[in-house]
Amino acid sequence: MSSFVTILADGLVAVLLVATIASSIALGRRLARFKSDETGMRRTVTELMLATETAERAIAGLRTTLGECDRTLAERLRTAERYAADLAVQVAAGEVVIDRIAQIVDSSRQIAALEPKQRERPTRSVPKDSQGERLSAAAAAAQNLAERAARRFEGQAA
């Protein structure tokens, strides 16, 4: 019986050796897959690092561009504010000039309305000083402006 137990033990050892060989082959295949996956992972990690570096450089460039845009925009805003202030001053000056012209036109109309009445009355001699000449010249200029404006108005209305 001892030889039967020996054969049985040898058979069991042989089965266990076959199982060990089969599991070793399976483990070898798994290790080969892990190594190929490791190579792929290394490549992926390397590509990811390159992409990260490129993104960091792009972000630095964008920050620089943003800073330049901010400075340019601030400069343009200051320039626009100066132009707006200049325009406000010029508009105010223009309004003063328009008011003066309106006063001159009103004065010339009043003078024109008085002229027929003065023709009926005897004329007095008015000393012609420089102020009187200036008023006459201003009245004549205002009358000319009023006539031109009337002609333009009639031309636009037609």
Mean pLDDT metric:
84
Low-confidence stretches: none
Helix content: over 70%
Q: What series of H and E elements makes up the topology?
A: HH
The number of domains: 1
Largest sheet, in brief, is:
none
- The dominant shape is rod-shaped
Give the strand content. under 5%
Distance between the termini: 140 Å
**In angstroms, what is the radius of gyration?**
53 Å
User: Structural class of the helices, strands and pairings?
Assistant: mainly alpha
Count of discrete alpha- or pi-helical segments spanning 4 or more residues: 2
Task: Work out the number of β strands.
Answer: 0
How does this model look, in words?
It contains 2 helices and no strands. The longest helix has 119 residues, at 2-120. The protein has 158 residues and is an all-alpha fold. The chain is rod-shaped and about 165 Å long.
Layout of strands and helices, then pairs:
Blueprint: H1 2-120, H2 130-157
Helix pairs in contact: 1-2
What labels describe this entry?
single chain, rod-shaped, 158 residues, mainly alpha
Summarize the structure.
Helices cover 93% and strands 0% of the residues.
